[in-house]
Amino acid sequence: MKNEISVCPLCGRKITEYKHTINKTLIAGLAKLNALGGRARIDKMGLDYTQFTNFQKLRYFGLIASTNENSEWQITDQGIWFLQSRIQIPRFVITRNASVIRKSSELVFINEVKDCVEYKIEWKEQARQPNLFDK
Q1: The whole model's pTM is what?
Q2: Is residue 120 a contact partner of residue 84, using CB atoms and an 8 Å limit?
């Protein structure tokens, strides 16, 4: 899909739509944020250049949100659940002026994204709590 360009009839400004696909670079950044406790400044996360410049795209998928405090980002419940492979997200989204205007009807789990199974968190083991019947 090519980026679609139109022109505002009032001001003449170009309006472009962009397609963003969930990929290993984005998921690696999400995993780093999670490893840091789920909240951090982007410049303190140790991201490589590509991860750094694309990190904010995770918000289009609902996986992170800006805290509006100290320029920090926070992982959302959906971000945690996606890393745990408990939910699916759209394979891609279309944005215009930094707002999502369409989402892919095709949904994916983290292990269905190429080369991303290594970032999957085994939530069943993490959620296991000792109970009265454990010895």
Answers
A1: 0.81
A2: yes
